[in-house]
Structures are given as structure tokens and as C-alpha cells.
């Protein structure tokens, strides 16, 4: 039996994934996919309880974690729309987390502050899975995005991956870029308006890995050369100046017209929700993978992660 590198561990950042443990995650995700497709569910996490502690809005992450736990035979405590109820009463994050650590075996947390998952991990006796910490990271989204790319291309090396939109505030970008840049022959194209560029500390980290990175403002020229076009929403909730947001929100729009320039094999991804950056006319294009592939993969990869974090002998 190999050692399961995820057992009992917090999942706080994509920096924790290595190429080797990504292989484990991919293979367990495929196993989960086959379970769901063939029999719907299993009971390997029977008796285990997951708390879903969400201080920020969520549809897909929240629901897919719950669906994942149910399909693994476990149960869950769903806490959504907390909207600071604990804060209103004067309770701090650490005390809330300590409480749910007493009732459950793992806590999946979304919170508006960067570093909040790390704080919770320091307070918790059970593993914390970061489901988004403000503009920080979203490591489980990165996992499903990575799995989606791997299932399509079977590799990352040699691909030209274009990330578009709000690279400054988009936590899914911050996490995914750390994964794909583990592969030295990937090409990363960063397309954003100047004021929404990738944070310089992340860019520095990526450049240290010696992968090819190009930053640009225009999308049309790079589409034809891209294997993956990963589109993001301008993150309205991170803006203090809403006029500025209005000016930027549709800076890039993916249209059927634009996709005429793309290769047949290119895939268009989006973590969702979209608010106009991909026209709905694109949805029926076979290159659009944001609806079916990414969402289903979200459930499979979260099943994989939960089973690895909670089961010593899973791998
Ligand atoms: N759902 C993703 C997130 O939570 C993307 C987004 O909200 O734009 O980061």
C-alpha cells in the first residue's frame, strides 16, 4: 500500500499539489466518475460527517461538495448564508471552526478573507478544505479545472493555456496557474486589462519555474494559438468603485464569431457564474466545456479529495 499524501491533511493552497499527488487525484477522480456513472454511489465514507461552512455566496462549490459527500455515503452539516451570524454574536472564526470540528470529520470553508482557511486550520482538530478565501485561492476548483484539461488532452506539457479576464481578483486563476506551471513546457497567456493583471507575487513565482508566460491586453490575436481559453468574470464584489467595474465587466466577450478563429480542439472553460463574458450562443459549441464537463468533474474531484483526506488506506 502506498502512502496516501492527503490523509488527514488540510487543503489550503494549490501549492500543496505536486505532479505525483496530482496523478493520484486524477486516478481516484476517474474511479469516482466510474462509480457515479455505473452505480450512482458508494458507502466508503459511511459514518463520516462534513461541515460545509460558507460565509460567501456559492452554488456549485457548496452543492458539489454536498453531492460528493452523499455519493460517498457520508453526511453533512450545511451552513450557507451564515452572513456573519457568528460575527454578529461576537464569535470569531476560530471558535466557530472549533465548534464544528467537534461535530464533524472535515470542514469545507469559504470565507471572504485571504488567509482565513489557514487561520481555521490552525484552530481546527479536523482537516480544513479551502473552498475559496477571498481573492486568495480556490484549490478544489483548480483540481477540477486540471482534471478537465487532463481528460481532454491527457497532458499539460506543450499546451497553450490562455487565462482571460480578472486575473487580479480571480482566485480560480491564482490556484490553477500554480498547477499548470508545474509543467515546464506549458505556455501561459495572461489576457487582462492593465489594472486587472495577475498579482506580481504570483507572476514572480510562476516565472521562477521557467515556464513561458506572456501578458497581453488583447484576446483576438491569441485565440487561434490557444488550446485552452479559460475565461473569468470580473469580480464585482472586490471593487470599491462600481463605475470602474461597469467599465471593465465586458472588456472581453467570447462570441461564436471569435471562436471561428480557434482550433477545433480548443476548449473554452469558465469557473462560473458568468455574467455576460461568454455569450449563451457559445454553449452549444462542442468546444464549450464549462457546463457539463467542468461541473460534473467538480463532483468527481471533490469525491476523490474527500475520500483521500478521510481514508488512510484509500490509496
Ligand atoms: N465560482 C468561482 C469562485 O468562487 C468563480 C467566480 O465566482 O467568479 O471563485
TrEMBL record:
It comes from Candidatus Roizmanbacteria bacterium RIFCSPHIGHO2_01_FULL_39_12c. PANTHER family: ASPARTATE CARBAMOYLTRANSFERASE (PTHR45753:SF6), ORNITHINE CARBAMOYLTRANSFERASE, MITOCHONDRIAL (PTHR45753). Its EC number is 2.1.3.2. Pfam families: OTCace, OTCace_N. It catalyses: carbamoyl phosphate + L-aspartate = N-carbamoyl-L-aspartate + phosphate + H(+). Belongs to the aspartate/ornithine carbamoyltransferase superfamily. ATCase family. Pathway: Pyrimidine metabolism; UMP biosynthesis via de novo pathway; (S)-dihydroorotate from bicarbonate: step 2/3. This is Aspartate carbamoyltransferase. It comes from the Bacteria. Residues 9-151 form the Aspartate/ornithine carbamoyltransferase carbamoyl-P binding domain. Catalyzes the condensation of carbamoyl phosphate and aspartate to form carbamoyl aspartate and inorganic phosphate, the committed step in the de novo pyrimidine nucleotide biosynthesis pathway. InterPro entries: Asp/Orn_carbamoyltranf_P-bd, Asp/Orn_carbamoylTrfase, Asp/Orn_carbamoylTrfase_sf, Asp_carbamoyltransf, Asp_carbamoyltransf_Asp/Orn-bd. GO terms for biological process: 'de novo' pyrimidine nucleobase biosynthetic process; 'de novo' UMP biosynthetic process; amino acid metabolic process. Keywords: Pyrimidine biosynthesis, Transferase. It is an enzyme of class 2 (transferase). GO terms for molecular function: amino acid binding; aspartate carbamoyltransferase activity. Residues 157-308 form the Aspartate/ornithine carbamoyltransferase Asp/Orn-binding domain.
Amino acid at each position: 500500500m502506498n502512502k496516501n499524501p492527503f490523509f488527514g491533511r488540510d487543503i489550503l493552497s494549490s501549492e500543496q499539489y505536486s505532479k505525483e499527488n496530482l496523478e493520484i487525484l486524477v486516478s481516484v477522480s476517474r474511479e469516482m466518475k466510474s462509480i457515479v456513472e455505473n452505480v450512482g454511489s458508494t458507502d466508503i465514507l459511511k459514518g463520516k460527517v462534513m461541515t460545509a461552512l460558507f460565509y460567501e455566496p456559492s452554488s456549485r462549490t457548496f452543492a458539489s461538495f454536498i453531492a460528493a459527500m452523499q455519493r460517498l455515503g457520508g453526511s453533512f452539516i450545511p451552513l450557507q448564508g451564515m452572513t456573519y451570524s457568528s460575527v454578529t454574536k461576537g464569535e470569531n472564526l476560530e471558535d466557530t471552526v472549533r465548534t464544528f470540528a467537534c461535530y464533524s470529520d472535515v470542514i469545507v470553508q469559504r470565507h471572504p478573507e485571504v488567509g482565513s482557511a489557514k487561520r481555521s486550520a490552525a484552530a481546527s482538530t479536523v482537516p480544513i478544505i479551502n473552498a475559496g478565501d477571498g481573492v486568495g485561492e480556490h484549490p478544489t476548483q483548480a483540481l477540477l479545472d486540471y482534471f478537465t484539461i487532463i481528460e481532454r488532452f491527457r497532458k499539460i506539457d506543450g499546451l497553450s493555456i490562455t487565462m482571460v479576464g480578472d486575473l487580479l481578483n480571480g482566485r480560480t486563476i491564482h490556484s490553477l496557474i500554480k498547477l499548470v506551471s508545474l509543467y515546464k513546457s506549458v505556455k501561459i497567456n495572461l489576457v487582462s486589462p492593465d489594472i486587472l493583471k495577475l498579482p506580481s507575487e504570483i507572476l514572480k513565482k510562476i516565472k521562477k519555474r521557467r515556464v513561458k508566460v506572456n501578458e497581453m491586453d488583447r484576446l483576438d490575436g491569441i485565440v487561434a494559438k490557444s488550446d485552452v481559453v479559460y475565461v473569468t468574470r470580473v469580480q464585482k464584489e472586490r471593487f470599491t468603485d462600481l463605475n470602474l467595474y461597469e467599465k471593465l465587466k465586458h472588456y472581453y466577450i467570447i462570441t461564436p464569431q471569435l471562436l471561428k478563429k480557434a482550433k477545433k480542439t480548443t476548449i473554452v472553460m469558465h469557473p462560473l457564474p458568468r455574467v455576460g463574458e461568454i455569450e449563451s450562443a457559445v454553449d452549444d459549441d462542442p468546444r464549450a466545456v464549462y457546463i457539463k464537463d467542468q461541473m460534473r468533474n467538480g463532483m468527481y474531484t471533490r469525491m476523490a479529495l474527500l475520500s483521500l483526506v478521510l481514508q488512510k488506506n484509500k490509496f
